[in-house]
């Protein structure tokens, strides 16, 4: 008998979304285990320093959502 090996590509869209959510939750449970490249650390340090120098240049999350939704009509 020649059975096809199950694949994630055979899942329904809702099953795929659930799988992604489960994987994300698993990764988020131990963030210290996620590798971060040196260039990413430097970029985060640069952005943090910029925010500390000029905190007014940042936007509140609610303001960002309003701008994005008004731009894309959602």
Could you please describe the fold and organization of this structure?
- It is a single chain.
- The protein is mostly helical.
- The protein has one domain (9-72).
- The protein is built from three helices and no strands.
- It has helices at 13-28, 38-53, 61-72.
- It is flat, with a radius of gyration of 20 Å.
- The N and C termini lie far apart (50 Å).
- The model has no long low-confidence stretch (mean pLDDT 91).
Write the layout of secondary structure elements.
Blueprint: H1 13-28, H2 38-53, H3 61-72
Chain-averaged pLDDT = 91
The domain tally reads 1
User: Which secondary-structure class do the elements indicate?
Assistant: mainly alpha
Poorly predicted sequence stretches spanning 5 or more consecutive residues:
none
Shape: flat
SSE series: HHH
Q: Based on DSSP secondary structure assignment, what is the total number of beta strands?
A: 0
Summarize the structure.
This protein is mainly alpha-helical and 74 residues long. The chain has one domain.
